[in-house]
Every structure is written in structure tokens, then in C-alpha cells.
User: Fold these one by one.
Assistant:
Number 1:
Amino acid sequence: MFYQILVGSSMGGWLMLLVALARPEKIAALVGVAPAADHFVTVFNELPLEEKKSAEEKDEWKLASKYSEEGFYTIPYSFIKEAENHCLLNSPIPITSPIRLIHGMKDEEVPWHVSMQIADRVLSTDVDVILRKHGLHRMSEKDDIKLLVYTIDDLIDKLTTLG
């Protein structure tokens, strides 16, 4: 049987956690880079009531982003409502595999505190949170990528030794 190390960045980090919950028997370990667990729901819920009502009426929400040519992403309101069914940070997260979370402390999209919340809520006892003092959201600097590769290599070595 094959076991996988899932690696997810930003929203992919949230999806990584959801996949691990859905198929725990297939997961060897997780590596999250600025994992955005519950992010869209959290940001939406912090909007003024008028903006939330407008998004519901128009069935879309324009989320500002410097990563989009338009300066925002258009998110269907139905996506936000569905995402509410997949929030993880309000209760224990029954994931027991090793987890490594890497987060930049200069991340302006997803606060590094989200990685700390994930670490606090997962049931795994093998959890490391690595904070990069000058790291940005995408963690795309040469040293950030080296750290990611090292982290995955280290997990592979650990799992090979155990298995």
C-alpha cells in the first residue's frame, strides 16, 4: 500500500487537512505552507453587515488580492456557504499523522497565527510549526524553498526509519 505526504499551500493547505480527514489511512504526513484553514469564511464573517448582504444578493463577493490582475478574486456566495461546512478551527482536528507547518511572519494574506491554531487543534503529537521571520505568503524565496524541500526530505527519512 502507498502512503502519501500531502503538501498544500494557502487554500491547498486547508484542502490538505480535509483530505487527511477523509482518507486518514492513506496519509503518511502533512506539510502545510501558510495553510489557509477556514480563511475565506473568517474573512467574509469579518466584513461589515452591508457587504455581506450585498454579496448574498449579488451571489458574489469580490475579495481583494494583489495576486490577481484585476486586483480581486470573484468568489460565488454559494462557495462561502459551502466552505462553512468545512471549517476546522473551532474544534479538535482528528489528524494523528506527523504535521509540519511553515508560515511567513510577514504573510499579509493568511496570518501566521492560523498555523498555530492548526497545531493546537490537531490530535497529532508530532507537530512542528516553522515560522520564517521575513517570509511572505507564497514562501517563494530561495531559502524558503530550501526549507520546504529539507522539511519534506526530513519527513521521508523519519517515515522510512519508522517503517
Note: DSSP finds six helices and six strands in the chain.
Number 2:
Amino acid sequence: MRIGELAARTGLTRDTIRFYEKVGLVAGRRTANGYRDFPPEAVAWLDYVRTAQALGFSLAEIALNGEGLRGAPDTAEALSALFEEKIRVVDARMAELAVLRAELVARVGTGCPLLAAGRPG
């Protein structure tokens, strides 16, 4: 299918699809007249990409994990492992943010938060 149809079926813009193609997330072939032609499975794959992004996965993670998932004998188990790892990353980031939040709360009302931390002004 041509890029316009793929865009319509996925809700992505043509520019986004071109970018994904440029970074290797989706592959299309060029027809004799120079148009991009994408396979029908590109629709499901781009839906997966959008969902994975919404779940906090970077495009690099999606590209890396996508290749592994395509060859995985048990996709559900492989996805669960990816989700568990992402949960660990999110939990660690939440802990970092809690420390940052506490630091900011401690500086509220001190006049100059940077001086209150003992840093030279």
C-alpha cells in the first residue's frame, strides 16, 4: 500500500511514517515510479509502535525489541518480560523524582533555594 493509505489506516502523518522509515522502524520498497509501497503488516506494526511509545518505550527500544519479538516463540512471555523491565525503570525513576521533590519542598520559602542548599550564590 502507498504511504497515503498507510497514513490513513494508522492515523499517523506521512512525515511520521517517512521518519520511521528513515530510522528503520518500518520498511517500504520503492515502486518503478518512485512511490513508497508498504506491506499490509505495516499497519499492525505501526499500531504496535504507537502503543509501545504510549507505554514509555523509546523508538530505539521499540526497534531493538521489535526484532526480538518477531522471532520469539512466545510473544506474550517476551512482552511480559519487557514490561517487567520497564516497570523496574519506571520505579527507579519515580524514586529519583521523589528525592528531587523532597529537595524542592525543603527549599520552598527559604528565599533563595540555591543558597539554602549551601551552594555559593
Note: The beta strands are 29-30, 36-37.
Number 3:
Amino acid sequence: MTQSGSNSQSNSASAPTRAPFGARLTTVVSQRGPLCVGIDPHPGLLTQWGLADDANGLERFAMTCVEALADEVAVLKPQSAFFERYGSKGIVVLERVIAESQEAGAIVLLDVKRGDIGSTMAAYAAAYLTDGSPLAADAITLSPYLGFGSLEPALQAAEKSGRGVFVLALTSNPEAPEIQRALNGPRSIAQTVVDAAAERNAGVRPIGGIGLVVGATIGALGVDLDALNGPLLVPGFGAQGGTLSDIRTLFGKSLHNVLPASSRDVLKAGPEVFALRSEALRTRDAIVSATGHH
């Protein structure tokens, strides 16, 4: 994604405001390297940074992250829950994080993990994936466990506006396998999700706009990603125990579409802007070196 392509709102109601998400993500990753940094202002990190656990501390934390990272890192991933817990003041800060990160050229992936049906899913799509909404990000995370088809309003809104989604497929939490590894006929539930995303991404170049979330610490992959033709958000390396070697082993032929995500390992370097930026760049360079990703 070029600087001029960063989610600026258009005054034209008829013309698309941005290129398709897969193309924008591919461009910005080629320019800035394959790294997604989470902006996760949980109470422990606020304390570690010497900040109060209130809306003012939240604002200082979040905007320091934006200052340090938004003009260097390809993707920033604010976790909505850590803003929502402060009520309306927290949402105001989240709106600033989204807008100012996009202005600096970063792609903003809002981690909301929404999953609902019908008009409610359409309302979430209006909030996060539609031009004119103050919470509209470049992409959001979605949960498909009411059925992949329940995501349709969000998928349509994302495609229409040049945004993307990252659908939970194989997550690292210990409770996940009872659902995600369960069989749906001959396939696992996770493979059903992969296949549905691949069907939507088929034929899109350079890649489709429907990505998947696959944890770095899941052990054996157990699904076939060859046909996905979309990005893979891979949290869990670093503080959560995953390594870059794990990522190489897990993803093999799909490695070129992997976007490793780090939160705590980078954020612990704060609160100084220079230290935070330096840690993010060190992490990015390590990913490039380990994966051969250019």
C-alpha cells in the first residue's frame, strides 16, 4: 500500500476509495516488511509503562504506539476490548488510533473477533468495514463459528469498500481443538473454514482479501492451505512461545503469505518511542531473515 492509498475517505459516492485489500496489503508488506504489531493496552502493560489504568493512561499508551510504529510497521492491530473497557473515552482513543495510523500509511487490522447473524452482522459490518464510520479499519477479525455463511454481510461490505477480514481458523488457546479440530463429515471444522475462504479468494490477484488467523503454537497444522490465496495472520510467536522456526515449519509453501503478529514482545520495549520503534524493526528484520520474506 502506498502512502496515498492509505484509507483516506473519498468525497465521491460512486468511485471506489481504495484498491482491493489483498493488493494493498501485498504492497505495504513489500515496502515495510512482514510484521503486524498489536496495540494491546492491557492493565499490566499500562503499569509497566508507568501509566494510570484510566482513559488518560490509555491515550498516552496508544498514541505513543502510533507515533513509534505507524510510519514504519506494515500492519497495526489494536485490540478493541482494551479500549472498550474505558467506555466512550476509550472508543474516542480507538478512533484516533485508527485514523492516525492510516494517515501514516499503516494498514489497521482492528481485532474485534465479531461473529453474529443477519442484521446484527450487517450492523457490525457498517461499524467496522464501511466508509464514513469513525471505527472503519482496513480489516477486522471475525469468528466463523456460527457458520461461515453468517459472515456474508461482513464479507460483502469488505469487498465493496476495498477492506479485508481475517477469519479465525486455528487458534492457539487450549480450548480451541474441541471445536476447530472436530470433524464436519470428512473434513475438520478448521478445514471447512479454510475451504470457504479459499473459494471466495479464488482467482483474485495478487491475493484475496479474506485472510485466516492461524496460531504459531498450534503444533501440527493439520489443514491444507495450498488453495487459500489469502493472507495468514500468525499470532503467538515470541512471548507466547512460538518461534520463527515454528512458522517456517508450519507454513511451508504458504510462507510468502504469512504475516507474523507480535504484541507483548514489542510493547515491552516502551514507553520511549525510539526504543519501541527499534524493537519493532529488530523483530521485522528477524522475520525477514528467518523466513526469506521480501
Note: The first helix runs from residue 21 to 32.
